[in-house]
Amino acid sequence: MGLAKTDLFTEQQNRVAELAKAFAHPARVAILQLLAQKKACICGDLVDELPLAQATVSQHLKELKRIGIIKGDIDPPRVCYCINEPVWEEARTVFGQVLDTFPLVQRCC
Amino acid sequence: MGLAKTDLFTEQQNRVAELAKAFAHPARVAILQLLAQKKACICGDLVDELPLAQATVSQHLKELKRIGIIKGDIDPPRVCYCINEPVWEEARTVFGQVLDTFPLVQRCC
DNA sequence: TTACTCTATCGTATTATTACGATGTATTAA
DNA sequence: TTAATACATCGTAATAATACGATAGAGTAA
Questions:
Q1: Residue A71 bridge partners (DSSP)
Q2: Which one of A36, B59, B66, B106 has the largest count of C-beta atoms within 10 Å of its C-beta?
Q3: Pairwise CA distance, residues B18 & B12, whole Å
């Protein structure tokens, strides 16, 4: 069953997992890096920059929008994509919370 | 095709994606939090703390070991699990690298 | 209107992931 | 030796994810 039992975990754990999924595929990392590195939004061009078919890129963009980490504003006939800053910050925060729980002290192994 | 085309992306992008997968399921987040919060390794007990069957927990542990973010040292008849510190630090670093590429300045949308 | 551009969605094929019962294996305890 | 413990692996079922060609839709330009 490819279905995670989200009701059995905390909201924070589910949110971390959701945000991590945004980065859990190299194509989505590439998309997020392209959007984050540009000073302005990208209106198109994403397909040209990626070694994937247009339909596949669109599917990844849809998933990233669902998670909330990017926005897509319509600027006909194009769609303007950019990082959704509050969610980007949320990712920074929650990844920090999880990764900083590990104390860098002597341990048993 | 559920197969990511890793050869088409950079090593860094693939590594970020791999490490993100460690956090991309609430059960694995829970496991990593349990391991990170303990002062000592956990020799068993993980199944008791999680709302999943033993086989499922073992499968998640195997995936986390494959990624490298945890270690499992044998202490018969148990196995001692703990965070693999260098990889944990690697995760901190690469997530930081990606998340810090976004400049907090005025943007177009 | 017609043609063109850009993006989303549909349909479909393939592989991955998640989950758990059952079983195997290795060590300890009796 | 036998039983119990702890964990891994197998087998299997169901759902998710990845990818792309084809098509649809919405807007622009001619």
A1: A82
A2: A36
A3: 10
Q: Is the peptide bond before A77 cis (omega within 30 degrees of 0)?
A: yes
Omega within 30 of 0 (cis) for the link into A51: no
- pLDDT exceeds 50 at position B106: no
Contact (Cβ atoms closer than 8 angstroms) between residue A24 and residue A32: no
In angstroms, the Cα distances linking B73 to A60, A108, B35, B41 are: 38, 10, 14, 9
Q: Is the pLDDT of residue A105 over 60?
A: no
Contacts 24+ apart (CB under 8 A), A72-78: A73/A41, A73/B109, A75/A43, A78/A43, A78/A44
- Does the predicted model carry a pTM greater than 0.85? yes
Distance CA A109, CA B72 (A): 9
Which pLDDT tens digit goes with each residue over A33-87?
A: 999 987 667 767 889 999 999 999 999 999 999 999 999 877 767 788 999 999 9
Q: Which nucleotides of D are covered by protein (CB under 7 A)?
A: 4-11, 13-22, 25-28
Give the 3-state secondary structure of residue B15: helix
Instruction: Search chain A and give the residue with CA nearest B84.
Output: A109
Strands A78-83 and B42-43: unpaired
**Contact A51/A86 with Cβ under 8 angstroms?**
no
Note whether B71 contacts A: Cβ–Cβ < 8 A. Answer: yes
The mean pLDDT value of chain B amounts to 88
